[in-house]
Design a protein that fits this description.
This protein is of the alpha+beta class and about 475 residues long. The chain is about 30% helix and about 25% strand. The chain contains 14 helices and 18 strands. Helix 8 packs parallel to helix 11 and helix 9 packs across helix 11.
């Protein structure tokens, strides 16, 4: 792929140490559609005087209590911080009362005088998805947060904050339905079966794959170099980041068109893309193309996506690649959600999507959540780029990864990050390249995924009899 030795060595070190992070607050399966989520409105109304608005000293001295309503059990308890204390109304899940269970409410009050600050409502049993309501004079305002992205900021609610504290979640949804896409938080897991199966197939094959600089599998199953399609030399065959992305896409191409992609056809399509007027770059960057290959990752991912799309409709038009670019507007603000009880730190501005650069990597989580919710059945090729200060600030698309967002059978949001013959994680990618940018192109995932076998790749057998 992009032949940048310093970056390649850095990536290899990252992959060797990469792992899936152990989350302190793991999401819980089994959530309901938002319209049927656990709702504590009657509990909050019944406990208004002796709990929610109890005087500060009385509230801070409270012991946890358990109450029942309409067959559901809730825990009421108080937690204190340095400057704030928190009134928690938590639904039971199994044998516990998780602070971020779907339907949990947390009222934040000041220690200094007991005055209310905000109310937090968990939309999924995941600390990353919640609504935050704050007082606004005689009305209230609502923010909607998903995985650090502010999806909606300051949505006006025609209710004083005191009424919000005893309002049902369905009533708040109805009041804000014209401004908030609440359907994002009620995924249908059955729509993601093909995606989940693809991820499982890739994971099963990973132990048999290895990294090799500039390595790929050609259409006939031979191990070659991407630079010139010559046989790989050195210790053991393998795949680099681009070769691995090609291997994943070949798993889509084989069942649909009966052959895998060749290095030659990918390069031909890359050349066609680069030759389109206004496709990318400028007269300033032309002089760098031969020496630095700054657009290699961008052109490569667009070419792969065009092949995948062309295999489904019978053609591979060169201009189809740009139509597969992800153009979803990202959140304008990010926030570190932190401890699910405490809630939020200060909001941070997040840049808009740029046509060829895409999205800043540290904001990919909410973008991928939106894509998974709005576009079930897609994976995404990411071309990671950064400006190179040693080369007059030329932006270089130096790395390729496959990002697969989906909701599992329990409704939990997942993201598989697949790069250079390994599975890492979104946290690992952010830690390594958080301020870099990721350009995304769509990969439609069909019912069958059959990547080349790393142990005996061969050519794809187009005469298979088990096609659907």
């Amino acid at each position: 792929m992009v032949r940048i030795p310093l970056v390649a060595s850095m990536l290899l070190l990252s992959f060797a140490a990469a792992r899936l992070e152990a989350q302190p607050w793991p999401p819980l399966p089994g959530d309901l559609p938002l319209a049927r989520a656990p709702d504590s409105a009657r509990v909050r109304a019944a406990r208004w005087e002796d709990f929610l608005v109890a005087p500060r000293e009385a509230a801070l001295a409270m012991k946890p209590r358990v109450v029942s309503d309409a067959g559901r059990t809730w825990e009421l308890r108080v937690e204190r911080g340095r400057d704030y204390f928190y009134m928690l109304v938590l639904p039971r899940r199994g044998d516990a009362y998780p602070v971020y269970a779907q339907g949990a409410w947390i009222l934040k009050r000041r220690v200094s005088d007991g005055s209310p600050v905000s109310a937090k409502i968990f939309l999924r049993s995941d600390p990353g998805t919640f609504a935050l309501v704050t007082p606004d004079g005689s009305r209230s305002r609502l923010d909607v947060v998903a995985y650090g992205g502010i999806l909606r900021l300051g949505v006006p609610l025609p209710l004083p904050f005191e009424r919000v504290l005893t309002a049902s979640l369905p009533s708040l949804v109805e009041l804000s339905s014209e401004l908030v896409d609440w359907g994002l938080f009620s995924p249908e897991p059955t729509l993601y079966r093909e995606i989940a199966a693809m991820v499982a197939s890739v994971r099963a094959a990973l132990p048999s794959l290895a990294y090799a600089d500039d390595g790929a599998l050609d259409a006939d199953g031979s191990w070659v170099r991407l630079e010139d399609a010559a046989p790989q030399a050195g210790p053991g065959p393998g795949l680099n980041c681009s070769g691995f992305a090609k291997w994943v896409v070949d798993g889509l191409l084989g069942p649909s068109r009966g052959t895998w992609s060749s290095v030659a056809e990918i390069k031909s399509l890359m050349a066609a893309l680069a030759g389109q007027p206004g496709s990318r770059g400028s007269s300033f960057t032309r002089s760098y193309e031969t020496a630095l290959e700054p657009y290699y990752g961008l052109d490569f991912t667009r070419a792969l996506a065009a092949l995948a799309a062309g295999s489904r409709d019978g053609g591979i038009p060169a201009d189809a690649a740009r139509a597969l670019d992800v153009r979803l507007p990202p959140p304008a603000l990010l926030v570190k959600t932190g401890d699910p009880v405490n809630g939020l730190s200060a909001y941070e501005a997040y840049p808009d999507r740029f046509p060829d650069s895409g999205y800043r990597v540290d904001g990919l989580a909410p973008v991928l959540f939106l894509l998974a919710s709005k576009e079930p059945g897609h994976a995404y090729l990411a071309a990671i780029s950064r400006s190179d200060p040693k080369e007059a600030g030329v932006r270089r698309w130096y790395h390729v990864a496959v990002l697969v967002p989906w909701f599992d059978s329990g409704g939990v949001f997942r993201v598989a990050v697949l790069e250079s013959a390994a599975e890492t994680s979104l946290g690992t990618l952010v830690a390594r390249a958080g301020k870099d940018f990721a350009h995304l192109v769509r990969l439609p995932v069909p019912h069958r995924f059959e990547p080349p076998s790393p142990e005996s790749p061969g050519a794809y057998m187009a005469t298979r009899t088990d096609r659907y």
